[in-house]
Amino acid sequence: MAALFADSSASHLVSIDVVAHGPAVQVTAAGEIDSSSAPVLEQRLEAVLAAELERLTIDLRGVSFLDSAGLCVLAAAHKRAGEKQVALRVLASSRAVIRPLQITGLWQLLGAEQVAAVSDDASVA
């Protein structure tokens, strides 16, 4: 059974969906992640990582903009996941997300994966 939580009212720039399938959790972001919306993502990731889980997927395929604030949130999530021995997977498809991750070295650190853009029947768990 999957649990679904949506937080689209917290920011007009980004929406965050969290879906749990047992020990695996997927956090899907859509919109822009900048200094005003990054705290929304940060709060969701902190809440997820406070729970018992084995795998965390952060799906950024719906993100159209990612700045340094978002990069800091992802780096902090990576650190926290490592401390808790949670396998972390980061998915991206747009140049607007991939390029900042590559330039900062986070692409390799996070083990990020370039995947196809979001489609209605795409599901990653």
Automatic annotation (TrEMBL):
<dbReference type="InterPro" id="IPR002645">
    <property type="entry name" value="STAS_dom"/>
</dbReference>
<dbReference type="InterPro" id="IPR003658">
    <property type="entry name" value="Anti-sigma_ant"/>
</dbReference>
<dbReference type="InterPro" id="IPR036513">
    <property type="entry name" value="STAS_dom_sf"/>
</dbReference>
<comment type="similarity">
    <text>Belongs to the anti-sigma-factor antagonist family.</text>
</comment>
<dbReference type="GO" id="GO:0043856">
    <property type="term" value="F:anti-sigma factor antagonist activity"/>
</dbReference>
<feature type="domain" description="STAS">
    <location>
        <begin position="14"/>
        <end position="125"/>
    </location>
</feature>
<protein>
    <recommendedName>
        <fullName>Anti-sigma factor antagonist</fullName>
    </recommendedName>
</protein>
<dbReference type="Pfam" id="PF01740">
    <property type="entry name" value="STAS"/>
</dbReference>
